[in-house]
Amino acid sequence: MALYSEMVMDHFRNPRNTGVIENADGVGEVGNAKCGDIMKVYLKIEDDVIVDAKFETFGCGSAIASSSMATELIKGKPVSEALTLTNQAVVEALDGLPAHKIHCSVLAEEAIKKALEDYYEKRDNI
Ligand code: FES
């Protein structure tokens, strides 16, 4: 069996939503101290709905595929739904990841949660 699913390879080779959103409503950056990979997520939010999501990932192929899939999963969703996104959901949507690559999907969940925290902080300080 191949180590990586077709879905992982597709999102690694053709990542969706790469880049930066200027004046994003929420930005979250996280890193994994062990592997040194870094992920940054940008969210554009209107009326508590995520209208756009982009990412920059300096990391492994699984981290790139995870951020690509995770941003796809939350685009168009209410903030309340995006808050419940788990790394398991990202792994499932990618048709699985090898056990030693699960932490890459955790990074995607954390980056999105951090960007949503940033959104709430900015909103509450207006
Ligand atoms: Fe660390 Fe993939 S090896 S995020």
Quick summary of this structure?
This protein is of the alpha+beta class and 126 residues long.
Overall description:
The chain has a single domain (6-124), classed as Alpha-Beta Complex (Sufe protein. Chain: A). Helices cover 44% and strands 20% of the residues. It contains 5 helices and 3 strands. The chain has helices spanning 6-13, 61-74, 79-82, 87-93, 102-124; strands at 26-31, 38-46, 49-58. Strands 1-2-3 form a 3-stranded antiparallel β-sheet. The chain is globular. The mean pLDDT is 96.
How many domain units? 1
The number of distinct helices, counting runs of at least 4 residues, comes to: 5
Strand order of the largest sheet: 1-2-3
Main beta-sheet annotation: 3 strands, antiparallel
Based on helices, strands and strand pairing, what is the structural class?
alpha+beta
- Bound small-molecule species: FE2/S2 (inorganic) cluster
**Number of beta strands:** 3
Radius of gyration: 14 Å
Secondary-structure element order, as H and E?
HEEEHHHH
Which structural traits does this protein have?
single chain, 126 residues, alpha+beta, Sufe protein. Chain: A, three-stranded antiparallel beta sheet, 5 helices, 3 strands, binds FE2/S2 (inorganic) cluster
